[in-house]
Amino acid sequence: MLLNPGPATTTNTVKMAQVVPDICPREKEFADLLKNMRKDFVDIVHGDHRKFTSVPFCGSGTMMMDVCLNSLLPANKQVFIINNGAYSGRAKEICQCYNLPVVELKLQYNERPELNAIEQLLLTHPDIHMIYTTHNETGTGLLNPVSEIGALAHKHGKVFVVDTISTYGLLPIDIEKDNIDFCMASAQKGLASMTGLSFIVGRKDLIEQSEQYPLRSFYCNLFKQYNCFEKTGEMQFTPPVQTVYATRRAIEEYFQEEEIPKYRRHMRVHQAIRKGLEKLGFQELLEEKLQSGLIATALYPNDANWDFMKIHDYCYERGFTIYPGKLFDTGYFRLCSLGAIDVPDIEAFFKVFEKALQTHNVKTPIKY
Which domains does the chain have, with CATH numbers? Predict the structure, then answer.
């Protein structure tokens, strides 16, 4: 069972969906599969097919960040990045690689952006074209106020791009009501499929408009991939065939469970994780009101016997994966509620986890 922030624990039916007869991905049968999947990706965020489309790529979620940032910025315009975590920080690094001009609102890992601060920067930087934020900062579990930021972006005529890689298919998203122009995801996260397939859901008119923007990447260009799909029904380059079949099955299971029951399951898993940490005395990095409900972050204890890798290895050998944090000045680990898991799985994990602490002489309740 994977308690890391992705890839997520999959069902056996999703795993077995990869075992299919070999097929050339240029066959019409495979193109039809992708066509239906593209519609499903839009439906999951309640998009209007007249306005929104989806564009799959072969790659990880970070590729989708790359695609949006390099493809959707006109010449001589700026990207405004709200940076309050490792993944929004990664967006800034991508911009630096392409020499894209960046306006940054730099915040602490436990700070949500103030709308007044965003608006002030928009007023003082008229060349901003795109506002970029991360919905759920996966390094900490902080949830940003996407809908409110999007409303402000549209008030000022800006394009709003949201990294929903760790919320798509997990938290309810309505792309238009939440004022989002582009969102993104990868199959192995909220849909609990396999790695290798990622996608963008966004406005058709803005994708078509971006044909006139500088071509900054041969492979990671949104218009080129979109245009290829529209003309041929296919990806430009070889798709991850088996992952596509697994994702088709994962989408079927998503719709079978339904959006709100699935969301409630992830929330109760998160609460079971928090309950287990509290029972052992662990402190969380973020206060509850800042949390997305998908990631719990527990601070390392002040105990000479604590060794994360020893605890990790003990749990891993018994079927559970835990994951360290991404803030270099703070020691903590993450337990995530993604994937095909429920409360009994968390209860089973904490039995193993508590035994790991006992085995390595870490005193409980935990002391700080």
Answer: 12-256 (3.40.640.10), 259-359 (3.90.1150.10)
